[in-house]
Amino acid sequence: MKVLVTDPIADAGIERLREAGHDVETAYEVEGDALHEAVSDASALVVRSGTQVDRDLFEAAPELVIVGRAGIGVDNIDIDAATDHGVIVANAPDGNVRAAAEHTVAMTFAIARSIPQAHARLKAGEWAKGEYLGTEVNNKTLGIVGLGRVGQEVAKRLGNLGMDLVAFDPYIGEERAEQLGAELADLDEVLERADFLTVHTPLTPETEGLIGEEELAQLEGGYLINCARGGVVDEPALAAAVEDGVLAGAALDVFAEEPLPDDSPLLDVEDVVVTPHLGASTEAAQENVATSIADQILAAFAEEPVVNALNAPSMDQKAFPRVKPYIDIAETAGRIAVQLFDGHVNEIEIVYAGDIAEEEVDLVTASALKGVFKPLEWQVNAVNAPQIAEERGIDVSETKRSTSEDFQSLVTVTVRNGDSEMSVCGTLFAGEDPRIVRIDGFRVDAIPGGRMVVSRNTDEPGVIGLIGTVMGEYDINIAGMYNARETFGGEAMTVYNVDQEVPEEAREKLEADPRVIATRYITLTD
Ligand SMILES: NC(=O)C1=CN([C@@H]2O[C@H](COP(=O)(O)OP(=O)(O)OC[C@H]3O[C@@H](n4cnc5c(N)ncnc54)[C@H](O)[C@@H]3O)[C@@H](O)[C@H]2O)C=CC1
Ligand SMILES: O=C(O)C(=O)COP(=O)(O)O
């Protein structure tokens, strides 16, 4: 498979993909048509913050299975568009956290002691010792906006250097903050109390412009550090606040537009220290994120769970082998149920019984939905199936029961519209041998696969013979068969595995016989 890498990543990640037999192509700093051309036959795309992965790109990439972000922030990726196209988006949320936290600490000292400014003067031949009187971080208050992974690592480091910590993060528990020695407060209070304010939120519609002119005024006399995302802080307002002495200084690693344009007002302000988005640029961090993304791409290619998928159900790698066979049987049950159902589906229920009910089943449920939608949607997979259900107003419910009658585990997929429903139960025999064991309440023992015919007929002599004869007339070979009946002489269901497609005419001929109540031709071929 082709893996396209459009931002530089560590060789270790590229090697891991090549060793697995994939073709890795790099195309740095390409955009527009050239990028679309490069991605047109790619099965995976690897990016950092330098590539805009927008809806047009997904349109241009019909083979794409996964976009791997070798890093944390995914604000450059249109995740909704990825989901619409059934493409997994995964990031590497752990690998560069310490690098980003260390850079934040470095930037804090850089502005507190004017290191870049003094360095530049000395390199230019000036011994400006008398002009720099720095600020100690010891005994000062650090305000942290966003106490997630990076924010917490910063809290530990700067807390150990004698800073008091006060944090604003509406989505973090008091207890966790307390463990870190940080006090939680609202944004106003954090701004009023902080001597140094550091930002560690992702860039989202909610955080865009979070720190504007008013907030900077509240931080009066303090320093601002932003190693998160440019758009979180209003840049013109920040440049003005430092220039006018409202703030003592600012240190920025990230910018609303990257690369930072030459005419940015930030570049003209002496006490604004800048680095070109270097937070994650350490050897260790780059190796971590590149190998993590390579592993996730390999998992996606193998249809295994992608551990840090942001738009697809994921699961613990250790549990996956136990759940994997049910992923297939659930899809099959969904496909059969929808093909046997008359009418419009507005409800789908998946019931897990027995051992499988103990497991994480998000992937199995998504797979059952994929099966139900398969005949309806062109490109449906476990990534976009839950969204398709939501968009179409189809209710999806999941039930777990600890007992499962005669089976170790049973997965039942029911499609429904009001009182009318069709349910299909699947299980595994002897480990991994898939079986359909109930269709619409009939106990069957059908091996799912290929082409099948499901017939409902009266339980009387000669019916199976009739079906065999009609199939023969149309040159349809019966490869397997299972007959089930409700009661002696009542209604029976027969499931046939057939080698050829069954034409409508053959079905009509069968249904013309009064003993045949209904027949359905089902295909499980792709
Ligand atoms: N400069 C660089 O090279 C790097 C930058 N980053 C940036 O740092 C960001 C944070 O990374 P992590 O800590 O790993 O993410 P995270 O998801 O672990 O933490 C983000 C925190 O922000 C909080 N948050 C979200 N919206 C908020 C709001 N409106 N107000 C206050 N808090 C809010 C969340 O509750 C969460 O605790 C990334 O999204 C990325 O943009 C990350 C790595 C390197
Ligand atoms: O991981 C992140 O969010 C970062 O900002 C790092 O960005 P980069 O991979 O260096 O372009």
TrEMBL record:
<comment type="similarity">
    <text>Belongs to the D-isomer specific 2-hydroxyacid dehydrogenase family.</text>
</comment>
<dbReference type="InterPro" id="IPR036291">
    <property type="entry name" value="NAD(P)-bd_dom_sf"/>
</dbReference>
<dbReference type="InterPro" id="IPR045626">
    <property type="entry name" value="PGDH_ASB_dom"/>
</dbReference>
<dbReference type="GO" id="GO:0051287">
    <property type="term" value="F:NAD binding"/>
</dbReference>
<dbReference type="InterPro" id="IPR029753">
    <property type="entry name" value="D-isomer_DH_CS"/>
</dbReference>
<feature type="domain" description="D-isomer specific 2-hydroxyacid dehydrogenase catalytic">
    <location>
        <begin position="3"/>
        <end position="311"/>
    </location>
</feature>
<keyword id="KW-0560">Oxidoreductase</keyword>
<feature type="domain" description="D-isomer specific 2-hydroxyacid dehydrogenase NAD-binding">
    <location>
        <begin position="105"/>
        <end position="279"/>
    </location>
</feature>
<keyword id="KW-0718">Serine biosynthesis</keyword>
<dbReference type="InterPro" id="IPR029752">
    <property type="entry name" value="D-isomer_DH_CS1"/>
</dbReference>
<dbReference type="Pfam" id="PF19304">
    <property type="entry name" value="PGDH_inter"/>
</dbReference>
<dbReference type="InterPro" id="IPR029009">
    <property type="entry name" value="ASB_dom_sf"/>
</dbReference>
<dbReference type="Pfam" id="PF02826">
    <property type="entry name" value="2-Hacid_dh_C"/>
</dbReference>
<dbReference type="InterPro" id="IPR045865">
    <property type="entry name" value="ACT-like_dom_sf"/>
</dbReference>
<dbReference type="InterPro" id="IPR006139">
    <property type="entry name" value="D-isomer_2_OHA_DH_cat_dom"/>
</dbReference>
<comment type="pathway">
    <text>Amino-acid biosynthesis; L-serine biosynthesis; L-serine from 3-phospho-D-glycerate: step 1/3.</text>
</comment>
<dbReference type="GO" id="GO:0006564">
    <property type="term" value="P:L-serine biosynthetic process"/>
</dbReference>
<dbReference type="InterPro" id="IPR006140">
    <property type="entry name" value="D-isomer_DH_NAD-bd"/>
</dbReference>
<feature type="domain" description="D-3-phosphoglycerate dehydrogenase ASB">
    <location>
        <begin position="322"/>
        <end position="439"/>
    </location>
</feature>
<keyword id="KW-0520">NAD</keyword>
<dbReference type="InterPro" id="IPR006236">
    <property type="entry name" value="PGDH"/>
</dbReference>
<keyword id="KW-0028">Amino-acid biosynthesis</keyword>
<protein>
    <recommendedName>
        <fullName>D-3-phosphoglycerate dehydrogenase</fullName>
        <ecNumber>1.1.1.95</ecNumber>
    </recommendedName>
</protein>
<dbReference type="GO" id="GO:0004617">
    <property type="term" value="F:phosphoglycerate dehydrogenase activity"/>
</dbReference>
<dbReference type="Pfam" id="PF00389">
    <property type="entry name" value="2-Hacid_dh"/>
</dbReference>
